[in-house]
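Chapter review. Work through the record for PDGLE domain-containing protein before attempting the end-of-chapter questions.
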Amino acid sequence: MGPRILIIVSVLAILIAGGKWISDGMEWYTKDRKQVTELVKDELFGTTEKKVTWVDDPRFGLLPDDATITALPKSFGFVLGMGTVGIIAGMLWSRRKTRTSSNRTP
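C-alpha cells for PDGLE domain-containing protein:
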C-alpha cells in the first residue's frame, strides 16, 4: 500500500503544480512582481511620458528566479523533479516488495 500512495501523491503534486503553472501563464522564470506601464500626458506641454511601476503579482514559473538553493522550491521544475523521483522510488519500492514476497517459502 505504501508504494502506491507515494506514486499517487507524486502524480497529484505534478498535476496540481502543472495546473497552477499553466494558469499563471506558463512563465519560464518565477516572478514576484509585474511591470505596469502607463502613458501619462503632460497637460502643460502636451507631451506623453511613460510611467513604469511594479505591482506585486506572484507567478509560478518553470525555473526559480534566483540562483540560490532557497529559491528552488518556488518553481514548477522542483515539483516536477521531486514528483518524478517519488514515482520512480515508488515503482522501485513496489518491485522490491513483490520480489521479496515471491522469494519466501511456505
